[in-house]
Fold this protein.
Amino acid sequence: MLALSERIRFLEKNVFADMDRAKTEIINRGEKIIDLSLGSADLPTAKHIIETIEKSLHNPENHRYLLHGGTAEFRKVVASWYQKRFGNFVDWETEVLPLIGSQEGTAHFPLAVINPGDYALTLDPGYPSHAGGVYLAGGQVYAMPLLEENNFLPQFAHIPEAVLAKAKLMILSYPHNPTTAIAPRSFFEEAVAFCKKHNLILVHDFPYMDIYFGEERPVSVLEVDKNKEISIEFFTFSKSYNMGGFRIGFAIGNSQLIAALRKIKSIVDFNQYRGILQGAITALTSSQQCVAETVRIYRERRDFLVSELAKIGWQVPLPPATLYVWAKLLPPWQQNSIQYCVELLKETGVALSPGAGFGKHGEGYVRFALVQPPEILAEAVAKIALFHQKTC
C-alpha cells in the first residue's frame, strides 16, 4: 500500500461522501430522490447577472489568466459595497481578496497562520471545511459545543487554559449552518474582546448574511473590530445571488492577514475567469430585488416545511435565518442521525443531512435544506410520515 500524508488521516471519514454514495446507488437503480441534504440552491441566478457574464464571453482579453492586478475593479467595488452596507472603511488595495467561494478562504487560511500543533477554536456543530483546513495545516481542533440551551452560541469561559495557551485562531460563522442561529452584536463584542485578550485571530465565515427572516440584520464582525486589528471575514455570492456554481467570493479584513492568505492563494491558483468577477460586480451594484425575492422564497418554504412537519408530530422551531431547518430527531433515533438518514434514504428516497456530520454536538439532529418548492417538500414529508409509522 502506498504511504500517504498523515494530514489527510483526519479527512478520511466523511459522512457527506457516504451519503453521496448511497444517493448514487439509488439513482443508478433508476429510482427518484428528493434531495434536501445539500445547501445548493435550486433558484436561478438573476438574469441581469447572467447577461453580464454572457457578454464577457465575446471579449478575448477575458480568456487569459487573471492575475491579482486584474482584479482591481472587483476589489474597489467590494470595498465600496462594504462601506455603504456596514459603515466601515475598507482599503481595496490591502484589505480585500477575491476568492473561489468562501470555502476556499476558510480551508486555505489556516495554512497562512497555523503552525503544527497550534489549536484552532471551531464551532461544534459546524461547517466541515473549518476544521478540515486546520487539519490540513497540521493544527489541532478544539470544538466549542453549541447547545440549544445557550442559543447555539459557544461559551468562551469553558475553554481550557491549556488549549488557550496553544490557540492561534477562533473560527465563527453566524447566521449559523447547520443550527440556523443568529448571533447578536453583544456576542461579537464578547468574541472580539476574548480574542484580543488571548492574542487570537478571529475568522468569521459569513455566507448567510442576507438570508435572515427577522427585522434585525446579522452582524459583520468588522462592525465590532472596526480597525480590523484581529479579524478577517469571508463572503460568498453563492447564497444571496444563487451563484454557487460560479465559485465567487471574497475576504475582507486585517491587511496582514489578507496578504498572508494571498501568498497561499498565489501558489494554489490564479483567479476565476474575469467574466465571473464582472457578473459579481453587477450583482453588488445593481438592484437587490433579486436577493429580496430569494429571501421571500426561503421564508415561504421554511414556514411551509415547519408547518407540514408539525402535522406529522415533528415539532421544529422556526429557523431565524439560513436556508435550513435544524430538526431534533424523534425516538428511537435521537442518537443515531447517520443511520436515520441512511435508512430514510433507502426506504423513501428522501435525503437529509445527519447532524453527526457537522460534529459531535450535532448528533440527535438532522438538517433539511430548503432547496425544493413546497409541493416537493410536501411529498418529502408524506414519505417521512410513512417511514416514522414503521420505525418510531
Summary: Residues 122 and 368 are 22 Å apart (CA to CA). DSSP finds 13 helices and twelve strands in the chain.
